[in-house]
């Protein structure tokens, strides 16, 4: 199986992409949304044509409000992101903007997130990530508990987690770049997407491992390396097909879905793609490498 | 059976959307789709003993519920959410008002009710420090004096929580004095009466400060221990003021002070846009998926599409029956789950193909394929279920909607894959491996 034979090349590709993603995260930083930082989002409809982002920012210059970001949305909407403001301040802001643009504006959406919610969300999100990862290691170790030769079951779990890290770091890196270029934010939905990716990507990995388990039991090949190669050969069509079906619906959601779930669909799509790649080109080959490495030492 | 069952279900899903039907059960839409207001209040429970927090929060919820019901919002959702421990602990009250987009009005209804407190004399050092700080920065003299007055009193523990009812009375003037004007008579609950008796007994000759929303309205001097469980508030009320106060007090004084932390308003047209877009995305996704499955897996692909249709119908029926509140994220979860639901079918078909290659007959291959695919399906879906459960636990309402739909979706999809797909494939009853049937059961570019 060429994937096993050339596994070093695929490791190198993954390492390179993960490296780039980490660099992007470190260099650009993550553009956290109001879910995490607190603040306000106001979406307004300009029924008679909207001004440009620059014009809106200029008209805010004379007010105490500074919009950190002004973003067009839909056909006639504008999304403003600013510091946390209350109802009265919001009314003042809207009337100022209405005056400048000489039209009646409709408030489509307003959210103001206080520090209690945002701080708690960040704490809980971190906790949830850790719990999911631990559960997955335990789960895989449990499911594959009867497989101990030649690679013990907890190694399957650890390899799965390594690939999961890979699957999460890459979309996060992409979002760091998108955040820098287009102001795309890391919000609660992004985290949800990542947690979902954890579940789905490990799903693919488990199917491959499951094949390895079955083939080991049936002793289809003398060497572990060949068993893994054969298992991959038997499962990659399925991995690619099922991921394709998921990616198809996600793309539909991204292209045709509502504005609120666009970035969410994008994060899921990237995560799914990377996840499929990693379960074929990373997870199983890593098992082989680990096996070789430990048998050399032993 | 299966066909009849799913037809009946789809009939239910369709007709229950019509309002005339006897079993009318429209989909329940979340705030982000129907439009409305989402408010999060932070409750200040620093004054409440740790053991009583849950109880106070429940009382708070009840009071807010009462106020909102008077406001006349259809199907408001009011939840208490407590989380964290120690310093990080927070107690929140989440209020969702579907269809309400005038936040100011909603806020007024919720918060425009007095917090009633009875305080005893004594220096509240924290409050004093606050008022000192305030008097340095505050330019209004009035507020400065008000705050420092408050700092001369200490909490007694007696608050509006112990209120049974309030009423306006006009006490007959004592001989030789002018009438006192309208007075508010407060009746305590038995616990409150006991507390009030203790307070009055311990403070004979001193004043008891009666505070409304932190402002001193009256500071009568205690003459004797009062065991009757009644107190009179003689502020300088007009008749109207007294009446309003009584109404508000009866509607419920807040057992714990609350502060608005976050607000979120979604206009109705934006919600409708998002809903339309979500449905369109779902439909297009489904069609593309169906085409892919039929072109690649041919006859079994068609079976998978039928089984997916059953899946969609079951899911929609479940959304109505439980009922699940659909949010934008929930719809995204549903669309995603359609993609995932295919997974089990693909696993089975790939196995089927292998079994056929080994020379088994088609019915045998179907049975074997299912048996062998089941382990993979079970293990791989369990991981998805685990993540969905964690998401549900960690999530805010937005994420919970997504996690719940995903969770139900994974479970239902396992069911439809192993029952519906299997039954349909076996029911096709292809016995012999002719050229046509082999072509139909193969896939991709193989012959």
UniProtKB/TrEMBL annotation, chain A:
Ranges where the SSD domain occurs: 125-289
Biological processes per GO annotation: intracellular protein transmembrane transport; protein targeting; protein transport by the Sec complex
Transmembrane annotation, as ranges: 12-30, 125-144, 156-182, 188-209, 240-258, 264-288
Keyword Cell membrane recorded: yes
Primary site of residence: membrane
Membrane topology qualifier: Multi-pass membrane protein
SUPFAM superfamilies in UniProt: Multidrug efflux transporter AcrB transmembrane domain (SSF82866)
GO molecular function: protein-transporting ATPase activity
Pfam families, A to Z: Sec_GG (PF07549), SecD_SecF_C (PF02355)
GO cellular component term, pick one: plasma membrane
UniProt entry tagged with the keyword Manganese: no
Role noted for this protein: Part of the Sec protein translocase complex. Interacts with the SecYEG preprotein conducting channel. SecDF uses the proton motive force (PMF) to complete protein translocation after the ATP-dependent function of SecA.
Protein's UniProt name: Protein-export membrane protein SecF
Gene: secF
